[in-house]
Design a protein that fits this description.
By secondary structure, this protein is of the alpha+beta class. It has seven helices and 14 strands. The chain has three domains: 95 residues, Elongation Factor Tu (Ef-tu), domain 3 (Beta Barrel); 57 residues, Beta Barrel (OB fold (Dihydrolipoamide Acetyltransferase, E2P)); 117 residues. The chain is elongated, with a radius of gyration of 49 Å. 14% of the residues are buried.
């Protein structure tokens, strides 16, 4: 029965307080341990992370690069045949497409005609009267007759049996015969010159050599109607490679991505380059292939920052200048073959081990 002095409803208060009193110190200790554990865990995690980052630098501003060749035709014309399509793997020297060869075959026929004409001209010059020397022989005979006639008339003139007019006419005949000889000799020299060959093409008439060179050019242009792959790789940007498409000489029409030429271009902060050296090991991970990890090494460090090679380089000579950490392109060579196909432009994360203790 409850005590008369004990308030109603408080009969069990003392026993309850007695039971909970020992639990309060334990709760305080648990809270204190929890309050200390969180900062200690953060401090320990930060220390571990800082230690783990020593001796290496990383960046996710890195991308797969591959050598690309823009293929264009060296002659113009319409595409007559296409032998590849987008994404095809081709070998070096493989035929990609063919330009209509008919105009260039006609050029060869014209060159053949020019050669035949030049050869016929050489034959005609060889049998020319100017080259035979007949005119020179006739001129010498005329000179002999004129000189003999002048000698007789000069003797008569000195004895007074000939007029001065006849004497001067005989002298004129001698001079005229001598001039005709010089003209005949000049024509003969000109005919020989037309048949002569220069030091550049000895033994071949210049006209024939010119026609033969024109034919060689026509044959070269005919061969160039067949456009072949300069390197092994994969076809890209082949949307304009269609039969009937007009090709403009020198204008790229298809791109060939080189096979086995993949490398990584990693843009590191300038503050990460202090301990970086060419040849240091690197680790490459790909966003597209989470399970793929490749080994590599530093192949080269850029000669300038990205902004230096930009189309519009930054100009900081103004009052609003703000210092920005620059990035330097670093080329990472891939060691070994990737188990997955590497596509140009894939995002990667690169870690360079600057303490030369890479995995």
């Amino acid at each position: 029965m409850a005590d008369a002095d004990t308030p109603i409803g408080m009969e069990n208060a003392a026993p309850i307080e007695a039971e909970t009193a020992p639990a309060r110190p334990n709760r305080r200790l648990g809270r204190l341990a929890l309050m200390l554990a969180v900062p200690l865990a953060l401090l320990g995690g930060g220390t571990w992370y800082w230690m783990s980052q020593q001796g290496k630098v990383s960046t996710d501003n890195a991308y797969v690069k591959q050598d690309k060749v823009s293929i264009s035709a060296q002659v113009g014309g319409d595409i007559a045949q296409v032998l590849v399509k987008e994404g095809d793997e081709v070998k070096a020297g493989q035929l990609l497409f063919r330009i209509d060869p008919e105009p260039y075959r006609l050029s060869i026929a014209q060159a053949d005609a020019a050669i035949a004409s030049a050869q016929a001209n050489v034959v005609a010059l060889s049998s020319s009267a100017d080259l035979s020397g007949a005119a020179s022989s006739a001129a010498r005979e005329d000179i002999g007759y004129a000189e003999a006639d002048f000698a007789r008339k000069d003797a008569l003139f000195r004895r007074g049996f000939l007029t001065k007019a006849d004497h001067d006419a005989a002298l004129h005949s001698v001079n005229q015969a001598r001039e005709e000889l010089r003209m005949a000799q000049a024509k003969q020299a000109a005919a020989r010159a037309k048949l002569a060959s220069g030091s550049a093409v000895p033994g071949v008439n210049p006209q024939v050599a010119q026609a033969q060179a024109a034919r060689a050019v026509a044959q070269l242009n005919l061969r160039r109607t067949e456009v072949r792959a300069p390197i092994a790789g994969r076809i890209a940007e082949a949307d304009r490679l269609q039969p009937g498409q007009q090709i403009v000489q020198g204008l790229p029409i298809v791109t060939l991505v080189g096979d086995g030429t993949s490398y990584i271009e990693a843009n590191f902060k300038e503050t990460d380059l202090a301990d970086m050296r060419i040849g240091q090991k690197a680790e490459i991970r790909f966003d597209a292939y989470p399970g793929v990890k490749l080994a590599g090494h530093v192949a080269s460090i850029g000669a300038g920052t990205g902004s230096e090679f930009a189309v519009l380089p930054a100009q900081n000579a103004t009052g609003n200048w703000v210092k920005v950490t620059q990035r330097v392109p670093v080329r990472i060579a891939i060691d070994g073959k990737s188990p997955r196909t590497l596509i140009a432009g894939l995002s990667t994360k690169v870690t360079v081990f600057t303490d030369d203790k890479g995995k």
